[in-house]
Amino acid sequence: MAESSRRLRPEPRYGTRPTMKDVAARAGVGLKTVSRVVNGEPGVTPDTERRVQEAIEALGFRRNDSARVLRKGRTASIGLVIEDLADPFYGPLNRAVEEVARAHGALLINGSSAEDPEREQELVLALCARRVDGLIVVPAGHDHRYLEPEIKAGVATVFVDRPAGRIDADAVLSDSFGGARAGTAHLVAHGHRRVGFIGDQSVIHTAAERLRGYRAAMADAGLVIEPGWISLGTTDPDRVREAVAAMLDAPDPVTAIFAGNNRVSVTVVRVLAGRARPVALVGFDDIELADLLDPGVTVVAQDAATLGRTAAERLFQRLDGAADAPERVVLPTRLITRGSGELPPAH
Amino acid sequence: MAESSRRLRPEPRYGTRPTMKDVAARAGVGLKTVSRVVNGEPGVTPDTERRVQEAIEALGFRRNDSARVLRKGRTASIGLVIEDLADPFYGPLNRAVEEVARAHGALLINGSSAEDPEREQELVLALCARRVDGLIVVPAGHDHRYLEPEIKAGVATVFVDRPAGRIDADAVLSDSFGGARAGTAHLVAHGHRRVGFIGDQSVIHTAAERLRGYRAAMADAGLVIEPGWISLGTTDPDRVREAVAAMLDAPDPVTAIFAGNNRVSVTVVRVLAGRARPVALVGFDDIELADLLDPGVTVVAQDAATLGRTAAERLFQRLDGAADAPERVVLPTRLITRGSGELPPAH
DNA sequence: CCGTCACCTGACAACGTTGTCCAGGGCCTA
DNA sequence: TAGGCCCTGGACAACGTTGTCAGGTGACGG
Q: Where along the sequence do coiled-coil regions lie (chains A, B) (predicted)?
């Protein structure tokens, strides 16, 4: 192996990576031949190929994909921007997107917008500068016109969990309105007339939809929502705690609560656990171990993995050339009864 | 604005992105001047800068970072390989790494190894081909010599949660041994002599360490572990269920169980909830809502966010030139008592 | 009025890869 | 044996950016 193949260049110094040129020199072949071997292209004699492989091995060569990208135009990577990588709701979504990307030979670059429109934009544009082939975005902002030049330039973009603002783009959503309506109706069906709603900031599309669903269900039942039954604007545990306390300690307290998302639900469960009088609860989003609590937490579950998978598949359809009009896919939610939502009103 | 600035090139066609050359032509300046404006370099007249900015705006130009990377050598991106993006344990770790990366102006590329050494290697090498500046890896395999050429070429690498195999590299770990020992000792201190251990595959470093901790605590107390008290090899709920059932239905059953990680704990909690006789439980890893169960689940908690932050900070120290010997950082665990671990033995 | 200097600006090469195209040689056929 | 074809291998340009360097312009001082 290490026979008398004199180097034409000095051994690359520490911190410098060997290039195809180095490999070619060492193997005594042309540059393009190395490229062919590395990419498994035909037209190389077994003997030549062996020599090249040995040189690659000896030098620890690894193709520089940056250069490759520059030449080929595609990066085989997609960007995923979500609200918070640490939120358990997004874990399965993230994973599902990754699986689809992997099946298409693409890598995943991702980041958290932290529910900050500026940070979302910064992140998205950074991904565009990296020339990701496509983007999957859980939008934090409400104006995505900044994406227009990118989309026109060919960056496939799919929004997930919430729709895009002020541009026409593919979106994959859960049926927040229908889910909240069904969840609230479930409480009403169990005899509740005084139902509270604790949601997130109503600028968030899903939060607004869920509020709308709650209102619709109450209206359907001919119930008038009193001021003080609705809390919006924050998922901060302390604030949610206060809001719940206020609803329960009012002169004429609510007998049931609809919680607008997983974070709110967890806090509400904690508050209710410390109360003597039972209060019914239905939460949006499933929670781990919800079945083991006493009572089990009844939830309107959405399928985050399907959300992610559907969005990613749509994205790759686009990348494969699908050019039909942007569409909005709405996935159904599922009511899972576990006890907390079936408690009768206590007075 | 849109005055008579004749184009020197035709408008780029759909799907093609404008380059600095296009911008330069449109603004009637040189290529390098555009580069200067884009990068905020000094030495450009306000008037020239304005013209360039207008051209950038009009064309929707965005710098191609692939080309930039090729020229500059650094990608301002780091790779993170974990076991499963969907595992709630890794969410905070992921997020912490992202925050540190963001503070250093780097993007995060990440993927799941799915506990498969081959897939880990594939992913890591793909990241190296992208020329990430650094790598943070939760290793699935036990031989990382394949990384030697990469590390020699300057890819900073930090292992997290588990150490590297067969190479000398930085690692940030939780004290699995100490935590398991303390957790088991806690059960023993509450009068248990017959304590079962349900763990993951013992080829996983943390799983082996936890088993070792359990054995050490039992030995410390002069207790002999009977065959049948230890279950290893899987976190599959059905198998764990069987294992727990076997321990509890044995002629001389265990009175307490130490669960080796969060997934196992959840399953064990489910099984115990269906049993009449109370069984004490301490689990490794904290679980959401563990405090609300009855009894609350006593756990040995590790701090995933700190794990991630520490690893990422170490990585950027390396990238900033730190060249000291690889070190192993071990973070302490914390026993959180909530009830399940303080149950007395039932006979 | 001219030299000097500071400041802008642009031409050019280089980063490492891949696509195009051509040269050379071996082999088959007429 | 000549002609032509196929197979292998290599030279060269191009991808879009940045670093280097040199040229050009205007101001200012002697």
A: none
Order across the sheet with B195-198: list the strands.
Answer: B230-231, B195-198, B256-259, B280-284, B298-301, B334-336
Residues lower than pLDDT 70 in chain B:
1-15, 347
Task: Give the number of other Cβ atoms within 10 Å of residue A114's Cβ.
Answer: 18
User: Which residue out of A56, A85, A318 would a mutagenesis test of the B interface target, given it has the greatest number of B Cβ atoms within 10 Å?
Assistant: A85
* Tens digit of each residue's pLDDT (9 = 90 or more) over A133-161: 999 999 999 999 999 999 988 899 999 99
What is the distance between the alpha carbons of residues A287 and A267, in angstroms, rounded to a whole number? 12
A103: contact with B, CB 8 A cutoff: no
Which candidate, B182, B221, B177, places its Cα nearest to that of B199?
B177
In chain B, the N- to C-terminal Cα span, in Å, equals: 88
Over residues B60-102, the pLDDT tens digits come to: 999 999 999 999 988 999 999 999 999 999 999 999 999 999 9
Helix (H, G, I), strand (E, B) or coil at A334: strand
Chain A CB within 8 Å of residue B66 CB: yes
Q: Residue B285 CA to nucleotide D11 C1', Å? A: 61
Instruction: Identify whether the C-beta of residue B198 lies closer than 8 Å to the C-beta of residue B269.
Output: no
Q: How far is the CA of A33 from the C1' of D5 (A)?
A: 22
- Whether B42 sits with its Cβ under 7 A from any strand C atom: the answer reads yes
**Partner residue opposite A289 with nearest CB, options B60, B92, B289:** B289
Please provide residue A285's backbone torsions phi and psi, each rounded to the nearest 5 degrees: 85, 140
Nearest to A60 among B14, B94, B149 (CB): B149
Q: What is the mean pLDDT of residues A264-282?
A: 95
